[in-house]
Each structure stands twice: as structure tokens, then as C-alpha cells.
Amino acid sequence: MAHFTLYSHAKGANGWSVVFVLKALGLSYETKYLDFGDFTNGEHKQEPYTKINPNGRIPALIDHQNGDSTVWESKACLLYLVSKYDTENKLGVANTPEEQATLAKWLFFQASGQAPYFGQGTFFMYIAPEKIPYAIERYKQEAKRVFGVLESVLADGREWLMAGKCTVADLAFLTWNEAGIRHLLPDGSEKDFPHVFDWHKRTLALPYVAEALKEREAATQSE
């Protein structure tokens, strides 16, 4: 049996951030891809999955080597993995109040400021039964705002958000950065956010990220 079972969706952005960390730490896992149906009545909204995650969203992670402990919410999964299994501190940060607060700051910003806006933007552009121009434009502007925050920080010359290395803070942003760049920013935006684009390319080039994205490609093609 694999060390972990990961419940996810092939096209769901949040689940892949957990895969990045699992691969980086060399942890074995089996992914169970849920059928979302029309997004309101899929497997993620019904038992038995809602017994695992009562919020009815992905991802959820079961640790079979720790009494089948269950973690849901992607950022909680990332923190669990690095706190319990990142013994070499590959993706974690120093255990000081300052560093832990900085990590929390970035993860909270991603969870509250990036993912919801980018997710709603793509929803109104591609999934909503009615096109609402005001909603689409609002979320495009929010994407610019979020990228502007990141650009202002990365413009000081740092390669990563914190700790002088890639951490779970950087990995948390990656898949939603992809969605934002592809769907919400206008063409030519690299000139407006050059440091964000460079950071994004650096993260994509990490071997375990590249491996995970190949897995994602295979999963989406087999749907």
C-alpha cells in the first residue's frame, strides 16, 4: 500500500500542489480522481467522500502510516507534510516565530487572495451558464492586483518568496499562477510582471514539479 491516498481531480489546481510536495519528499501515494459531475452533484459532494472531507472539495490526504490521519484543505496538507516528513528541511522554513509567521502569511494570502479570485475568474469565463461581463472584468482586475503584490516583493531580486530557497509557499502559488497567466491576464503581461514570470518559470523547471506536471497531463488525457 502507498504511504498516502490523495483525493483530487485531474484538472483541479489545488490537488497538484500537494503532489509537488509528495514528489519532492519522495513519499509514495495513490491518487483517486473524483468525478465532479456538473460541480454540484459529483462524487466530491456525496458520501463516502464527504465523510473524509465534509467541505466536499479537493484535495484530501490520508496518511496510512499515521493511523489513517486525514487532512483536507490544500495548505493544511502542505503544512502537515513538511512538519512531519520534511526531515531535511527541503521545503520548510526555520522553526522560529518570524519564519513561521512569514510562511503563514504567504499561505494565507494564496488561500484567501489568489485561489478564490482566480478560481472565480475562470468559473465565470468558462463554466457559468451565463456570461456576466462585470464579474469577468472584476476577477481579471483582481488577478492583476495579486500579481502586482507578488511583483512588488520579487522585484527586490529574490528568486523565491522567502528563506532563500523554494518552499511550500512558492509551490502553493504555482498552479493558480498558471491559470491566471493563461486565462486572466491580457497578452503581453510579462512586461508588466517580469519578476513573477521569471519566478513562475523557475518553479516549473524544478524536477519534481516537471514530473508532477507530466502526471497531470496523463491524468487529464485519460479523463
From TrEMBL:
Domain of life (superkingdom): Eukaryota
GST N-terminal domain location: 2-89
InterPro entries: Glutathione-S-Trfase_C-like, Glutathione-S-Trfase_C_sf, Glutathione_S-Trfase, Glutathione_S-Trfase_N, GST_C, Thioredoxin-like_sf
Annotated GO MF terms: transferase activity
Entry protein name: Glutathione S-transferase C-terminal-like protein
A Pfam family reported for this protein in Swiss-Prot or TrEMBL: GST_C_3
Keyword check for Oxidoreductase: no
Keyword Transferase: yes
UniProt family annotation: Belongs to the GST superfamily.
Domain GST C-terminal: 96-222
Key words, A-Z: Transferase
